[in-house]
Amino acid sequence: xxxxxxxxxxxxxxxxxxxxxxxxxxxxxxxxxxxxxxxxxxxxxxxxxxxxxxxxxxxxxxxxxxxxxxxxxxxxxxxxxxxxxxxxxxxxxxxxxxxxxxxxxxxxxxxxxxxxxxxxxxxxxxxxxxxxxxxxxxxxxxxxxxxxxxxxxxxxxxxxxxxxxxxxxxxxxxxxxxxxxxxxxxxxxxxxxxxxxxxxxxxxxxxxxxxx
Length: 212
Fold this sequence. Notes:
Blueprint lengths: L1 E5 L3 E7 L3 E8 L4 E4 L5 H10 L7 E4 L5 H4 L9 E5 H18 L14 E3 L2 E4 L4 E5 L8 E5 L4 E3 L19 H12 L5 E3 L6 E2 L1 H9 L1
Parallel strand pairs: 4-5, 5-6, 6-7, 11-12
Antiparallel strand pairs: 1-2, 2-3, 3-4, 8-9, 9-10, 10-11, 12-13
Helix pairs in contact: 4-5
């Protein structure tokens, strides 16, 4: 696993196997924000270890319902776990199917743990200047997390897996995804992290728009 600091309060945890998988930590003033929980309790353990001496409450954010982003939720079941309202529904309805197809990738014992706080359009944490935004594209339930203080955007899987494949698999229509990309273009950030890719600059958004 690779651990990278991103500016002053972001930390990117990257697992490399058949593909790279990123978990992201923002160490705010009021809360620690863990964005996505990976492939199970073992997957999220290094993030918990990293902040073990930090007594701030943890807020967990699921960027979308896909298995490789939510299987570690149960290791943080006592925390606030946030997602878009569609994500909770889709995790619940797709759980058994995701287990059946992908259990070989599990890291630790899997137990369903649904988000306990859902939203529709935006959710804002004023004290830490963390904005959660509904940004459908890769999936209909996809959200992004904008760290307004550090100008870092976590776009979830709306950015493709590698720099050679920056256009993700899109489970919505093309126009919906383009609308999200145009929205990104108007946001104030200079650094972009995502579910699988390397740390990128804002210019990646125009690169994707030119390819979609």
